[in-house]
Each structure stands twice: as structure tokens, then as C-alpha cells.
Amino acid sequence: MEQFEHISVDDAKRLINEQGAVLADIRDDSAYQQSHVPGAIHLTNQSLMALLEEVAPETPVIVMCYHGISSQSAAQYLLQQGLDAVYSLDGGYEAWVKQADSNDEKR
Asked: Which residue intervals define the domain Rhodanese in the entry (predicted)?
């Protein structure tokens, strides 16, 4: 993959469940601490190297931000760092929460 791909919430959940994709939340610390998707890692400048060292290059990584804009550049950066399959979550955390609310799931 030379370019990150966009991914919907449904497809992201499927990729996480079926292929063990990593969900990386790049929102600021306050937002992440207040609420985040269970299992999502908080990807910051400080945790970036750990992610790159601990995640196998072939493991899919889904990048999540607030609304799906900032995650695009972060996803492309992760590809440039050697990861093979990186996705930007369309609609970001807000889309995830909206779908969870509409499905009456707990966050």
C-alpha cells in the first residue's frame, strides 16, 4: 500500500475483529482520557516509536481523530515509516460514537 485508505466504521470493526487491526487514536490527551474506544491505543509523539517497534509491519493500523481529517496525514506518515496497511477512519471518533449510539452499544 503506497497510499493510506479510507475506512468506514463498519469495515474498521470488521478489520479489528477478523485481522487484529490496531486502532490508534490521535486525539489530544484530554479527549482520549475523557472517552475512547475500548482497546484503542493513544498515539502521540511520545508513543509513536513504541507503536512502530511493537506492531508488525503487516498488521493493519486504523488511525482515528475527531472527525476523520487529521487522521489522514497521520495515516500517510505511518505508511512512510514502514507499516504496510494503514487506514484513516472516515468520520473519526464522532462517527464511531454516533454508530455506537444508534446501535445502543456502550463505549
From this structure: 17-105
